Amino acid sequence: MDYATIRNGLVSELYQHLQVPVVPTDTTQPKPPYPFVSYKFTTLYRPDASVMVRAPVENTPELESELEPDFEYDVEYILKEQPQMVLSISTYSLDEAEAYGLAIQVLNWFKLHGYRYLKENNIIVVNTTALQDRSILLVDNFEKRIGFDVTLRTVHEQKARVESIEAYVLEGEKA
To answer: Residue 106 carries which DSSP code?
Structure first.
């Protein structure tokens, strides 16, 4: 699970679909022109289902140089998890209908249009929340903000190789 790859891919694909700027919510950069979309990962790793797999390490040519000659039957432990991430999306406009329309387009991307991209990158949409009014007053007019959260599940895998004991010598005995 590589956060930067997931983030960059989502931003790029959303931009291609919407043709409006998709920017981080928390930034010191000036706002882009309306309408635009902002995103923030509010949860990067929420543990979910996991399984530990124990498998013998194959003595392949790639591993020949790594394996000790006395440790022919190493074991590899693989921890496979499906952690969840929560992504908060907001759309911005000075026009309420435009902000709602854009929010629905983003929601539809996560539910339908982005399905193939997400699937190819081992990302599943677990849940989306209802659209919420997040508008604020900016000096003399309202900035219309419509937002929702998306819960995504991805795959995370860790590996650890453990050398097995192939031969031993008891104290006082000859090998």
So the answer is: H
Q: Distance between CA atoms of 49 and 6, rounded to whole angstroms? A: 20
How far apart (Å, rounded) are the C-alpha atoms in residues 3 and 24?
A: 14
Q: Residue 10: count other Cβ atoms within 10 Å of its Cβ.
A: 24
State the CB neighbour count (10 A cutoff) for residue 21.
Answer: 17
CB atoms closer than 10 angstroms to residue 146: 24
User: So what CATH class is 3-65+73-162?
Assistant: alpha beta
Burial 133-142 (b: 16+ CB within 10 A, else e): ebbeeeeeee
| Residues with Cβ within 8 Å of residue 118, at least 6 apart in sequence | 110, 124, 125, 152
Q: Other C-beta atoms within 10 Å of 122: how many?
A: 13
Q: Rounded distance, CA 147 to CA 166, Å?
A: 59
Tell me the domain boundaries of the chain. Answer: 3-65+73-162
Q: What is the pLDDT of residue 156?
A: 81
- pLDDT digit string (tens) for 49-104? 666 666 656 555 444 445 555 556 677 777 888 889 999 999 999 999 999 999 99
pTM: 0.75
